């Protein structure tokens, strides 16, 4: 049973560029959340998707956007990249938007130069 | 404003020791308190979790102690092993009016267990 899969695992971008990160939830899960984890810090909640809608959002600018597809997979898009966007981006899935138990992927490491 | 405060930032113990990691929270609406373990290059993995109506929970060598009145909770690792060397995060969550949850995380504790 595959867990949460994320792609790409690593990528390097330059300031001002745009990036798309992808996530496939664990089999049987229908809700996807995205977190940003800066080096040496705890994850910060970006947003949550359920039933193809953004259900709640953390304190992130509109440059961060997402999408959930009918098969429950999700994308995170970041526009106009800043150096400070360099981080590990984690995708977590669960069954139901109010569920407690999250399963995390290994993350996508984004470096902005 | 850090809603979940975690200490210490790093911890070194000898094999067999009992490392203790502490967390404090402010929001009394939090109703779920998990601990996650993260190894380098991996995503966080749920270790153990507790609800505020319980004062202690044990799973194997891991124990959570919860003090609702003090708004504090802690993780104890019994008979620690070198394989427990990882970063540990406490977190807290509550459910909003739309039946949605999000996790608020501590800053993490880097644990090293020496052989």
Task: Tell me the layout of helices and strands.
The complex is a heterodimer of chains A (113) and B (115).
Chain A: E1 5-7, E2 10-13, E3 19-24, E4 31-37, E5 44-50, E6 53-57, E7 64-68, E8 74-78, E9 87-94, E10 103-104, E11 108-112
Parallel strand pairs in A: 2-11
Antiparallel strand pairs in A: 1-3, 3-8, 4-5, 4-9, 5-6, 7-8, 9-10, 9-11
Chain B: E1 4-7, E2 10-14, E3 20-25, E4 33-38, E5 45-50, E6 56-59, E7 62-67, E8 72-77, E9 86-95, E10 101-105, E11 109-114
Parallel strand pairs in B: 2-11
Antiparallel strand pairs in B: 1-3, 3-8, 4-5, 4-9, 6-7, 7-8, 9-10, 9-11
Summarize this, please?
The complex is a heterodimer of chains A (113) and B (115). By secondary structure, chain A is mainly beta.
What does this structure look like?
The complex is a heterodimer of chains A (113) and B (115). With 113 residues, chain A is mainly beta. Chain A has strands at 5-7, 10-13, 19-24, 31-37, 44-50, 53-57, 64-68, 74-78, 87-94, 103-104, 108-112. In chain A, strands 2, 4, 5, 6, 9, 10 and 11 form a seven-stranded mixed sheet that branches. Chain A has a four-stranded antiparallel sheet with strand order 1-3-8-7, with no helix packed on it. Chain A starts with a strand and ends with a strand. Chain B has 115 residues and is mainly β. Helices cover 0% and strands 56% of the residues of chain B. Chain B is built from no helices and eleven strands. In chain B, a hairpin with a 5-residue loop joins strand 9 and strand 10. The N and C termini of chain B lie far apart (38 Å). The model of chain B has no long low-confidence stretch (mean pLDDT 94). The A-B interface holds A 4, 33, 35, 40-45, 48, 50, 55-56, 58, 90, 92, 97-107 and B 6, 32, 34, 36, 41-46, 49, 89, 91, 93, 95-96, 98-108.
Defining traits:
heterodimer, A: 113 residues, mainly beta, seven-stranded mixed β-sheet, four-stranded antiparallel β-sheet, 50% strand, globular, B: 115 residues, six-stranded mixed β-sheet, five-stranded antiparallel β-sheet, 11 strands, 0% helix
């Amino acid at each position: 049973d595959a867990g949460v899969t994320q792609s790409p695992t690593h990528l390097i971008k330059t300031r001002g560029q745009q990036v798309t990160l992808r996530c496939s939830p664990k089999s049987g899960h229908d809700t996807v959340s995205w977190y940003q984890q800066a080096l040496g810090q705890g994850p910060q909640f970006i947003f949550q998707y359920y039933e193809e809608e953004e259900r709640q959002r953390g304190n992130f600018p509109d440059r961060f956007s997402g999408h959930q597809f009918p098969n429950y997979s999700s994308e995170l898009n970041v526009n106009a990249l800043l150096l400070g966007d360099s981080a590990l981006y984690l995708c977590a899935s669960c069954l139901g938007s109010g569920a407690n138990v999250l399963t995390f992927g290994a993350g996508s490491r984004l470096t902005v130069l | 404003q850090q809603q979940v405060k975690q200490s210490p930032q790093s911890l070194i113990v000898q094999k067999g020791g009992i490392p203790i990691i502490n967390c404090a929270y402010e929001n009394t609406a939090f109703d779920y308190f998990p601990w996650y373990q993260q190894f380098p290059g991996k995503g966080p993995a749920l270790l153990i979790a507790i609800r505020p109506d319980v004062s202690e929970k044990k799973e194997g060598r891991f124990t959570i102690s919860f003090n609702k009145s003090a708004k504090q909770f802690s993780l104890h690792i019994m008979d620690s092993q070198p394989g427990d060397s990882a970063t540990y995060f406490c977190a807290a969550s509550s459910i909003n009016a739309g039946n949605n949850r999000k996790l608020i995380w501590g800053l993490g504790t880097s644990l090293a267990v020496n052989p």
